[in-house]
Amino acid sequence: MAAVEGLPTGARAAVITVSDRSHGGLRxxxxxxxxxxxxxxxxxxxxxxxxxxxxVDAVQQAVRAAVADGNDVVVTTGGTGFAPRDVTPEAVRPxxxxxxxxxxxxxxxxxxxxxxxxxLSRAVAGTVGSAFVVTLPGSTGGVRDGVTVLAPVVGxxxxxxxxxxx
Length: 166
What we know:
The protein is of the alpha/beta class. It has six helices and seven strands; from the N terminus they run E-H-H-E-E-H-E-H-E-H-E-E-H. Strands 1, 2, 3, 4, 5, 6 and 7 form a seven-stranded mixed beta sheet that branches.
């Protein structure tokens, strides 16, 4: 992917993988590093991927820390489906100050004909303070598709959150 047009200088992104198995060392995290790489390709400075278990408090602490650290964008991967331990939307939704329903609609509709299960995503998106937060699926395909959906708008979004481009 090419760098995003209009992305403000110094834009920063944080990646949080939500997975009991990856957090416990039982499975290698593939979606988090891929997401970090794709966001870097778009022009973001991306720190180390944070891996947390599928627990509301752990997810909320990681999101709050990423926002407090000054990231413009915070993206989670994992925990957006219907498995019993999938709690990412429940963790992130109460933190959101302004919802971004168009983003989640686009995420669910992207490649819907090729991947019918995309409509099962319970993704949420919106702002927390001056950061944009979005929850993506835990699969590498879902991460790729999510970044494809975000790429055309994320530069404009970050510029707006920083108070410009009105």
